[in-house]
Amino acid sequence: MKKKLILESGEVFHGEGFGANLQTEGEVVFNTGMTGYQELISDPSYSGQLVCMTYPLIGNYGINRDDYESMEPAMKGLIVKELCEFPSNFRSQMTVDELFKKKGLSGIQGIDTRKLTRIIRNKGVVRGKIVDAEADEKQVVTELKSFVVPTNQVESVSTKTAYAAPGRGFKVVLVDFGSKLGIIRELSQRDCDITVVSQDITADEILMINPDGVMLSNGPGDPQDVKGAQEMINGLLGKVPIFGICLGHQLIGLACGAKTFKLKFGHRGGNHPVLYIDKNRVEITAQNHGYAIDSESLKNTDLEETHIALNDRTNEGFRHKIHPCFSVQYHPEASPGPEDSNYLFDEFIDLMKSFNSKIG
């Protein structure tokens, strides 16, 4: 199944298709993780994107039942140097190719992923399309230049119906902007009583649940496109402890008067160093975001910076100076990735304890 990847900038990569025999287009981004491809494939934050893996061999431990981050993949496709046809792992139940066929996803292998990554690093995120080998390249480039990235990505991946993950501890409302199951797992391990709600919920509706805390999840796309979220957050500040992750972090920033901007090529992988300013400690983190908070814009808000990315000095975390609210740009649930930042869930538990003792 001969395929080619065509970029809007005109570059063409010839390779071999896998998964469903479909043409697919989206933003082309790269991920530097050596493992965790199953979690990546099922991460809702990759909605609408073609993901290039910089590690050359993908699929060597197969696909299993336990490592999904959502029920249905939201990515548009996968780009790899070499796809393993015969995985070897005691948990393996199918290959990546078999999963893609079942889920109607298309991928391409056998291309120079190092060259593609360098193009993205130099030019920034580009739009691309996986097409049949016979496709007219000039026509595809023309189509890509007029391709508009959808603005309803959060709406498309968020749950439409609230559901519960019961526990006997603190009652937490998880606002699903494209939440990963790893967040629910970490809260459940701390015996939280979790209610997962849709992204368009209002502050009044959340407060009617009477939660001990609110978690704002990760999710795809531009935070400016998430309608109603800033109003909801402002309606919660000071009334209940809040913990934001990734997109949730950006939305808290916007609600408090900070600004966001689109990174040239984003942070995606499980090996990103972050400085925890308070403790002067470096943590290796899992990340997946294409937008970031403008650190300079924090100076005119009630937010203070707590974490900084060491690769490019962009903001990776802040806390509210007045209200019980903090957030980080990376993924402390580590699905996949290192567990250096797992303690943040414990800090959220402590914040709920402290807040409840003050109002009790």
Automatic annotation (TrEMBL):
**Recorded GO MF terms:** ATP binding; carbamoyl-phosphate synthase (glutamine-hydrolyzing) activity; glutaminase activity
Keywords per UniProt? Amino-acid biosynthesis, Arginine biosynthesis, ATP-binding, Glutamine amidotransferase, Ligase, Nucleotide-binding, Pyrimidine biosynthesis
Under the heading SMART domains, the entry gives: CPSase_sm_chain
- Location of the Carbamoyl-phosphate synthase small subunit N-terminal domain: 1-131
UniProt keyword Cell inner membrane, yes or no: no
Region of interest called CPSase, as start-end residue ranges on this chain = 1-170
Q: What is catalyzed by this enzyme?
A: L-glutamine + H2O = L-glutamate + NH4(+); hydrogencarbonate + L-glutamine + 2 ATP + H2O = carbamoyl phosphate + L-glutamate + 2 ADP + phosphate + 2 H(+)
Q: Which PROSITE patterns match?
A: GATASE_TYPE_1
Which EC number(s) does UniProt give? 6.3.5.5
Keyword ATP-binding included in the entry's annotation? yes
Q: In which pathway does it act?
A: Amino-acid biosynthesis; L-arginine biosynthesis; carbamoyl phosphate from bicarbonate: step 1/1; Pyrimidine metabolism; UMP biosynthesis via de novo pathway; (S)-dihydroorotate from bicarbonate: step 1/3
Q: How does it assemble?
A: Composed of two chains; the small (or glutamine) chain promotes the hydrolysis of glutamine to ammonia, which is used by the large (or ammonia) chain to synthesize carbamoyl phosphate. Tetramer of heterodimers (alpha,beta)4.
Report the function annotation for this chain. Answer: Small subunit of the glutamine-dependent carbamoyl phosphate synthetase (CPSase). CPSase catalyzes the formation of carbamoyl phosphate from the ammonia moiety of glutamine, carbonate, and phosphate donated by ATP, constituting the first step of 2 biosynthetic pathways, one leading to arginine and/or urea and the other to pyrimidine nucleotides. The small subunit (glutamine amidotransferase) binds and cleaves glutamine to supply the large subunit with the substrate ammonia.
Q: Which family does it belong to?
A: Belongs to the CarA family.
* Classification via PANTHER family: CARBAMOYL-PHOSPHATE SYNTHASE SMALL CHAIN, MULTIFUNCTIONAL TRYPTOPHAN BIOSYNTHESIS PROTEIN-RELATED
Write the protein's name.
Carbamoyl phosphate synthase small chain
Q: Which organism is it from?
A: Chryseobacterium koreense CCUG 49689
> Lineage from the top down?
Bacteria, Pseudomonadati, Bacteroidota, Flavobacteriia, Flavobacteriales
